[in-house]
What does this fold into?
Amino acid sequence: MENIAQQASRMAGDGSHLVEDLERYRARAIELGATDAKVIRAEDIVVDERVRGKCRYPTCSSYNTNMNCPPHTMGLEEFRTLLSKYRYGILVKIDVTSGSMDDFKIANRRTLMDVVWKLESAAFYDGHYFATGFGGTNCKDIFCPKLECAALAGKGCRNEFKARPGMHGMGIDVFATAARVGWTLYPAGSSCDLTTLPHLSSVGLVLID
It folds into this structure.
């Protein structure tokens, strides 16, 4: 069976060095602090209406508070169309093994988003100008936790080159998508004993055309 690298090489007939670039971005993600990173075919990214439904029922505290969260993100059919224009992505994961929700939030917020926007920027300057990144949580929790969203007020984003939507806000089933690259994620929340979980994971994505 043809592997991802062979498929990329076959598809990159325009001299774009796609195979080398994808591997370089994968390695760079780990250098920047990711626990692991995988190349994934865009067609293997799972989009499910139920993910967006969970933004509303029960209503997430970030719902309607910023431009990178529903209902302000694009609809699922529009996102599916956008996703179909891409060939590959870099799936990035940060594992936290301390059992501390505070440590998980730090990894989930600042560190993962830094990896995502830096990979997106690198891909852009390498000629993959449609590279698009998605974090593990919403941008407001990271950059403006105590401020009103300036973009939502029509004033322009304070962090326009770094703020990105979370994967779940676009309807991506992170658990199912992670499973397709061999990762196991564990649901975590305020009502579970975090010390019983092998690790907590935060996942981000950069789509590459």
In short: Residues 101-125 form the longest helix (25 residues). The chain has one domain: 4-208.
